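quick one if you have a minute, typing this from the bus. theres a chain ive been looking at and ive put its sequence and its fold in token form underneath. please have a look and point out which stretches look like helix strand or loop to you. anything you notice is useful, everything is just below.

***
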Amino acid sequence: MNRRDFIKGLGLLGCSSLASGFSVNVFGSEVESFYQQFKRELARHPLLRGWEGLSEDIAPRHFTWQGQLPDMLTGKQFYRNGPARAVLGEQRYTHWFDGDGFVHRYAFDKKGLTHSGRFVKTQKFKAESEAGRFLYNGAGSVIENSRPSKNAESVNTANIALLPVNNELWALWEAAMPYKLDPSSLETNGQVSFDAALDGIPFSAHPHTDRFGNIWNFGDLSFFGQSAIIIYQMSPRGKLLQYKMVPAPQSYVHDFAVTDNHLVFYFPPVKKGAGVTLIDSMQWQGEQHGQLLVVDKNTLTPTLQLPFDAGFVFHFGNAWQQGNTLVVNACWYENADVMLNGVIEVIADSATRHRRSTAAQIVIDLNSKNATLNKTSTDMEFVQFDSRFTGRKTAIQYGVHATAGLPHGEYNSIASINTETGALDRYSFGNNVIVEEPLFIPSGTKYGEGYLVNTALNFAEGATYCTVFNAQHIQDGPVATAKLDSYMPLGFHGAVI
């Protein structure tokens, strides 16, 4: 198929499944608005500070290390992206996916770090700033008197992840192309454009680099009603080498796994139907199977699709091939509640809030065309690994973890798990802390020799911390910690340069 004809065909579908064109007034004068409800609940539940949001860019300020920063980390820049503008006027988003993207920069020096942050100046951000109100429904939030979204670009928040490439920092979303940032100033310098025919086409927030330097990504075309994904291969400098549309189930897919020869996708039993927002349109169908899809990296063609256990995955860890078997690390949820629930559910009682994900492995036999799920009881999310060993067998995976009896539904620990022995190396920050994704920085030549950097919110104290751990001795606690002078909203993914 001619690629421009294909893209044109997608354009005719618009993005009605991404953000509804309905304009709904759900807040009558006699009904408490979510803006008011959140403000009231925040006073009672400081846990909600993680979703309170920001309204302004943050100028650089310097904070001193407690402990000692390893010499090899001096000069490193640690970044975090996430939804931050949750309020505009007296409107507040109800879902934690929806805030406009805000990128934090932590510049390390020997004595401390310099923290700054800026909003990604997307088309959406600029239009709504000028209007003084949110104009469009979010992925999971209904906005009073919202406008129909013309296309995915009009609702692109660039709020999920970051990709350092070719002296730029790309701020990534799921359903459109990323925005380019200056790594030093965080100034927004327009959007990535591989080809005019691809502008506005989904480009996921989870590109992966294989051990040969190739960058791989996909776009979920079910946002446009298509039973397909589009796969991208890029050079180490971000140049598009090839792309191809691949048939795939209509579902919701956030991440994928990479081996030397294959790309592995999991499609949960989530079906999109009618709904005011994207999240509202999603229906969990746990009585049905999920689907695994294996794609050959050399030809960009599917080699295997088979039914699999019903569950949900946001994030995959390392994956590799052993003979004719693929082994894929994942953070496995029993259902999709974590995505379908809104912000206020984080303070719900334990009977109604979502269950955490656990470390798991998916094992796929390419000969027998069968797959098995090996689950553990170890809570883990935002899984990371030493990416120098992508596609090679590794036992250690890193991530956030929750200690037993934690009274809220988030994560309060940094941990590594040995997937061969089950051994856990962890450090708990206590019950009043929510930890964010740790990033691995290698220091030696062997797997696992390096450091983990992360941020954590002490919601009771009202402070955000940046911490550094020896990745091989997590239980010893951070080797260096810097405390900011205020608290930041919780983010999603980061990068280190």
Summary: The mean pLDDT is 92. The first helix runs from residue 3 to 13. The two ends are 39 Å apart (CA to CA).
